[in-house]
Amino acid sequence: MSFRPLALIALLFSSHAFAAPTLPLPPKVGIASPDGNLSVEVTTDNDGRPSYAVLRDGKPVISPSRLGFLFLDVPKFERNFVIAGHQARSFDETWEQPWGERRSIRNHYNELRVVLTEKNALKRSIDVVFRVYDDGLGFRYEFPDQASLKEVKIGEELTEFDIAEPATAWWIPAGEWNREEYLYHRTPVQEVGDAQTPITLRTDNGLHISIHEAELIDYAGMNLTRVEDRKFRAMLTPGIGDGKVVRTAPFNTPWRTLQIADNAGDLVTSSLILNLNEPNKLGDVSWVKPMKYVGVWWEMHLDRKTWASGPKHGATDENVMRHIDFAAKHGLGGVLVEGWNVGWDGDWFGNGEDFSFTRPYPDFDIEKLAAYAKSKHVRLIGHHETSGNAAHYESQMGAGFDLYQRLGIDAVKTGYVADAGQAKVTGLDGKVHYAWHEGQDMARHHLKVVAEAAKRHISVNPHEPIKDTGLRRTYPNWITREGARGMEFSAWGVPGNPPEHEANLVFTRLLAGPMDYTPGIFGMKTRAPDGVATTWAKQLALYVVIYSPLQMAADLLENYEANPKPFKFIEDVPVDWEDTRVLNGEIGDFVTIVRKDRNSDDWYLGAISDEEGRELKAPLSFLDPGRKYLAQIYRDGEHADWKRAPQDIVIEQREVTSSDTLTLRLAPGGGQAIRFVAQ
Fold first, then answer.
1. Entry pTM
2. 15 CB contacts (<8 Å, ≥6 apart)?
3. Distance of CA 435 to the CA centre of its chain
4. Are strands 379-385 and 432-435 parallel, antiparallel or unpaired?
C-alpha cells in the first residue's frame, strides 16, 4: 500500500482568459486519475456557488454541476462559498475478497479534498472529497464538527450530474409503489423522469457511464430527478420526520459514484463501488459459505402450494425432507423453506404484525428437520418475511437469530413485501411510523440486521431490500440480495420478464452488486401469459452471467429429475470465483461473461441474448496457454426459440485451447453455457 502527497496533481488554475477585467473568475482546483486520462475540476462562481466537472482525455463528461444542500432549519449550503483550502494524496493497495467475482482487487486512486467555507457571517464549512480512479470516481460531503452546524436536518441535496453529451439512458422509475421491481426503460436522456440508481448511460460517441452511490450508511438513498435538458439532481428518499436525513456532525454522506468506460463490459468488471467502502469489519468470516440451494418456493408462485397453513401448505416435514434428500443427492448446499413460521394466515402483505420468528407451524418440525439436514451435509436456509414491518421484526430478531444459531442455520433470506412508503419503523419518539424502503431509518435497520446476524455467524440475503452500495466489503455476511424484478414475475399471471430483461440487469442493477435472481427454470409453462421467456440453454447461462454467491436451482424438483443432462451444469457450476471477464456485450442486447472457479483451474462461460438470435465470437485467450481443456457445451438447438421451442438444447463436448475462438449461436431469447475442464 502506498500513500503519498500529490502536490503536482492538485493544481490551482488561473482562469482569467474569459473573465471581465473587474470580475476575475474564482480559481479552480483539480486532480487526475492515476493514468491521467480522467480528471475532476472544482470551482466556485462569482456568487460563490460551488461546482465540479469531469473530463476524460480533456473532453467533458460531466459539465459543471452544482454542489450543496437545503436544510430545514438553517440557511442552505448553495452560495457564498470560497475554496478555503485543498489537499491531495494518492492511495494504492490490493486486497482480497473472502468471496466474490474475483479474488484480488486493486484499490488505486488519487484523492482531492476541497474545503468550502462561507464568506458571510456564518463562516460554516464543509469538505468535498473526490477519489478519482482510472475507471471513474466517487465524491462525498464531509460535515465537520462545528458549533454553527451541529444538528443537521437535510431537506435535500443539491448535487447535480449534468451529462455533457447526448446519450441514451437505461433506467427504472423512482418513488413508485413497486419499489425496484420494474422493467427498464430505454430512452434519450431528455426523456428520463425520476430515476433510481444505478442508471446507465451511453453517449452518442459511445462512452458508457453509470451513476450510483457507495457506502450508504445512516443516510437516505439517492435517486435522480431530471431538472432540465441532460441535467440531473440528487433526490433523496423521504424520511419519517424532520428532514430526509437527520444527523449530528461530524459525519460523511455516501459516495456519489460515476463509473466511466469505453464499452459496456468494462462497467461490469469495475470494482469502484466496492473500493469506496471500508474494509471488512467482521474479522474472520470463513463461516460465510457461498452455495447453491433448492427450496420450497417456486411451487408457491405457481399456486401449487401455499405459504399459509392448510391443505396446500408447502413447509411440511415431508416436503422439506424431500428437498433435503434432493440437495444431498446432487451436491447442493442448502434448502430454503418459506412459510414455515406462524403469521402467514390472513392479511400478511404490508402488515407483518402476526409473524413469529420462533414459532413454526405444527406440520413443520424445525428441530427434526435441521438435524436431518445436518445428517445429510445440507443446511436449512432460514426465512424471515417481515412485510416491511421493521419495527415488529426488530422486537423479535434477536430471538429468531438465536434459534437459527442453535440449530446450525447459518443463512437467512429476509423479506420486506410492502408497497413503497409503507414500511414501518420505530422513530426516536418510540412510535411506529410509515417509511420508505430506502429512507434513512431503513438504512439503519438493514445494517442492524446484518450486524446482529454476524454476531451469530449468519449470512443475510434480503429481498425487497435497500439498494446495494458495496457494503458487502465491510460486512461480508451481507452476501446477496434481490432489489430488482426477479424470476418470480415469470411465474405469475402478469406479463413476465421479457427476453431482454437479464441483458439489461447485467449493465444496470448488477453494477451495484450480486442479485438473487433465482434462475434454473426448465418448466416454461407458468401462470404468466408467455411463461418463462428464455430457452433452457439461457437458463443455464444465467448461473454465470448473473452473479450471486447464493444461487438457487429454482424449479420444481420433478423438472430436474426428469432432465438430468441439462441439470448437470447446475450441479457443476461454482458460485465463488477467482476471476471474471466480459468478452462482449451491449446493454439490453447480449453479453458473454467468463469466470474462473476459485477452487479449481476450470473456467465457465455464459452468453445470453435478447429477443434476437445472434452469433457471437468468443476468443478463448483467457485459458492457460499451452494447456488443453475439455469444453462441455450446453447450447441452443437448431430449432430453439423462447416462444416455440425453449427446451431445444444440445449438449456436446470438444477439446479446446487458448488459441481457439468459438462461435456462439444464440437463439431468440437464447443462450449458451460452457464448462472448460482443465486437462
1. 0.96
2. 24, 25, 26, 27, 28, 43
3. 21
4. unpaired
